[in-house]
Amino acid sequence: MKSFRSYLSVAALAAAIGLAGCSVAATTPTGVSSVSGATTGSSSTATTGTAQAVSLDTLAEDTHYDADDLTWDAASEVAVTLADGASAVAGGTTSDAVTVDGDTVTITTAGTYRLSGSLSDGQVVVAAGEEDTVRIILAGADITSSTGSPFVVQSADEAIVFLEDGTSNALSDATSYTDQGTDAPNAALYSMADLTIAGTGALTVDGNYNDGIASKDGLVLAAGNVTIKAADDGIVGKDYAVLLDGAYQVTAGDDGFKSDNDTDEGRGWVLINGGTLTVSAADDGVKAFNTLTIAAGTTTVTESEEGLEAQHIVIAGGTATVTSNDDGVNASGGSSTTGTAQGGMGGGETVGDYTVEVTGGLLTINAQGDGLDSNGNASISGGTVIVNGPTNSGNGALDVNGELAVTGGTVAAAGSAGMVVTPGSTSTQSGVQVALDSTVSAGTVIQLADSSGTVVAAFVTTKATQSLVFSSAAITAGAEYTVYTGGTATVSAGLGEGTLDGASSAGTVTAGEYTAAQGPGGGMGGMGSGRM
């Protein structure tokens, strides 16, 4: 099994070059996209801001993934036709590598296997050697089991599930499993070995019992058009879970996309490095025990309790849109329990080893609880962060127990006025705090104009709002800005350009003077109400 470093570091991200999907040679079978150096076709790895995706070299060091695994000699494929009571290997009913026992098809050695046909109540099992790489091409395969998981990797070094271009495939498990032993399968697609999913075909996974896709080792999603419905977690990679490319739609009864190794140091991390991930989850949308990094691609959490959660959260590129019933982005959990007491008016708050770091990309949050929440520190040095925060005063658009350092990028955090956290003293980029006399309704335009009357920022609320914290390179420390409500604005994700025709003045603010340090971590100003 390949070794790998503990997890992708922020330094590695900063040094990484662009990545676009899964790289292969020109002779690769149909369905594999090209990725050496430059994006081809309809890659979804474009980033917002200056950050770049993680390179193939970095991924090869940190995961089991190797693009060469997606290249093979088509003449070496073993064709297996699935059929109730009549599954067969090309050239006969069995081979040295494949056995058929009733409606259970077992693959026992390294190689490339092409599966087509259907089993209405059967199973495909990979029981290969610990050093074997097993590549399974799903080319119109539909497998259902009434007693357990329809697709199980019991043993191998790595299993690759390749979705043939132009084909639709399906896996559906039982609502209860006969095998309840230790390490027994608990997902419709279950692997005890490193697992890679690739190819441009389609796969539907119904996890009726527990999880949809689960690897007890590492998991890399290199491509594919995959739809998952799961009673519990949608997609789980124990050591790590990586999305490189493809489109993954997840509906989960618990967490959507996660890595949950909480015992091995440096494991339990998630990387979204391209592709499209759409999650509707009853609990957390995207979750890592250790570090959650979004470096490229499009991540959308349409429903969740907490949208993004990990000890350390890095937004380095791409587009992330999060909707949550509780916190939108939450750096918490794990084993980090020690820290120092620090806080504003709310009293001492423990500052643990938790971080949120935004260096690029576009992060948009719609949260009923705290918008961007760190039980430690947070920093924003690039990209754009837009928070449509809570309407109740018990939560804040920004909630940082330690220091919130803003040194670049654009921040627009709107919400209630009861818990306001503003950029801390280490911030080198200035900003303003707007505290309105009364709550304005959803759809209201809030604008900032400099002393010459030029609009430097326009924000359109998506819910009732009384507070706005705004920071960008357009704000000059010490300068006075007039706040307007109304007028017109052309915005993307709520932020853009505006005109003052029909707008009403709501008072003035001075950049860098934060007056409502009411939340943990506080701000740079005093204890006044800051109402306008």
Polypeptide structure, described:
- The protein is mainly β and 532 residues long.
- Helix content is 2%, strand content 45%.
- It contains two helices and 45 strands.
- The strands form four sheets. Strands 3-4-6-8-11-14-17-20-22-24-27-32-35 form a 13-stranded mixed sheet, with no helix packed on it.
Overall mean pLDDT: 86
Helix residue percentage: under 10%
Which oligomeric state applies?
single chain
Supply the helix-strand structural class.
mainly beta
Can you tag this structure with a few keywords?
532 residues, mainly beta, 13-stranded mixed β-sheet, ten-stranded parallel barrel, 2 helices, 2% helix, 45% strand, elongated, disordered C terminus
Tell me briefly what this model is:
This protein is an all-beta fold.
Topology:
Elements: H1 10-15, H2 56-62, E1 78-82, E2 88-89, E3 98-101, E4 104-107, E5 111-119, E6 123-127, E7 133-144, E8 151-155, E9 158-163, E10 168-172, E11 187-191, E12 194-199, E13 202-207, E14 211-215, E15 218-221, E16 225-230, E17 235-237, E18 240-243, E19 247-252, E20 257-259, E21 269-281, E22 286-288, E23 291-303, E24 308-310, E25 312-315, E26 319-324, E27 329-331, E28 340-342, E29 349-351, E30 355-358, E31 362-367, E32 372-374, E33 377-380, E34 384-388, E35 398-400, E36 404-406, E37 410-415, E38 431-440, E39 445-449, E40 455-460, E41 465-471, E42 480-485, E43 488-492, E44 495-499, E45 504-510
Parallel strand pairs: 1-5, 4-6, 5-7, 6-8, 7-9, 7-10, 8-11, 9-12, 10-13, 11-14, 12-15, 13-16, 14-17, 15-18, 16-19, 17-20, 18-21, 19-21, 20-22, 21-23, 22-24, 23-25, 23-26, 24-27, 25-30, 26-31, 27-32, 30-33, 31-34, 32-35, 33-36, 34-37
Antiparallel strand pairs: 1-2, 3-4, 28-29, 37-41, 38-41, 39-40, 39-42, 40-44, 42-45, 43-44
